[in-house]
Design a protein that fits this description.
The protein is of the alpha+beta class and 205 residues long. The protein folds into two domains: 86 residues, Glutaredoxin; 103 residues, Up-down Bundle (Glutathione S-transferase Yfyf (Class Pi), Chain A, domain 2), CATH 1.20.1050.10. It has eight helices and four strands; from the N terminus they run βαβαββαααααα. The structure holds glutathione.
């Protein structure tokens, strides 16, 4: 009998959750899913906070292990499946660099812009800092992808992490056409076996 699959706690509007779901899909592995209604405050409920002190999705329950933060979950799954972790120590370190950069520079700004534009209807000007920083991050990514097919060698969790919110640039109010290298890279990711867009991977309930 096969072991129960890991349980992903998430919300379908979250790119951070998509990162984890995409890792399962590209690895050809199954996950069980638990919807967390973050718009109803479920991430702040005591039961959820007991599982995840950060009060955020994604959260993964994998047997006795409970892991949060998409980058940590991706690293855990890369080690567990032996996929997308990079080859050798120097690639693994490069991958870790991109995961940290994504969380600090890319998702933190582009993902936040998307969130506020889509759900919080900000006053004009309120997103300026995120936009300035997000555009710098996108320029860095665009430059790197001018000379590299994937972020580190073959496809890795660095690509899986960085691509999620970049698939939704238009929802963040940014122009995808301004980044041709990024668009070509997204196309290469979308061509990987097992790839599915977020709407086909993350259940709505
Ligand atoms: N750095 C975290 C960010 C996770 C995150 O921001 N999650 C959002 C959804 S995308 C969330 O759960 N927000 C709920 C809240 O703030 O109450 C990661 O990479 O997992």
């Amino acid at each position: 009998m096969s072991a129960a699959p890991p349980v992903l706690h998430g919300h379908f509007e979250s790119g951070n959750v998509y990162k984890v779901a995409l890792m399962f899909a590209l690895s050809g592995e199954r996950f069980a899913y638990r919807h967390v209604d973050l718009f109803a405050g479920a991430t702040r409920a005591p039961d959820f906070l007991r599982l995840n002190r950060y009060g955020e999705v994604p959260l993964l329950e994998d047997g006795a292990l409970t892991v949060s933060q998409s980058g940590a979950i991706l690293a855990h799954l890369a080690a567990k499946f032996g996929r997308f972790g990079g080859r050798g120590e120097s690639e693994r370190l490069r991958v870790l660099e991109w995961l940290l950069w994504d969380n600090h520079r890319l998702t933190a700004n582009v993902g936040t812009m998307r969130f506020f534009r889509r759900f919080a209807k900000p006053e004009p000007g309120n997103l300026d800092v995120f936009k300035t920083r997000g555009l710098v991050a996108l320029t860095r990514l665009e430059t790197h992808l001018g000379e590299n097919r994937f972020l580190v060698g073959e496809p890795t969790i660095a690509d899986i992490s960085c691509c999620a919110y970049v698939f939704w640039l238009d929802q963040a109010g940014l122009d995808p056409a301004a980044y041709p290298n990024i668009q070509a890279w997204l196309g290469r990711i979308a061509a990987l076996p097992g790839f599915k867009p977020a709407a086909e991977l993350v259940p709505t309930a």
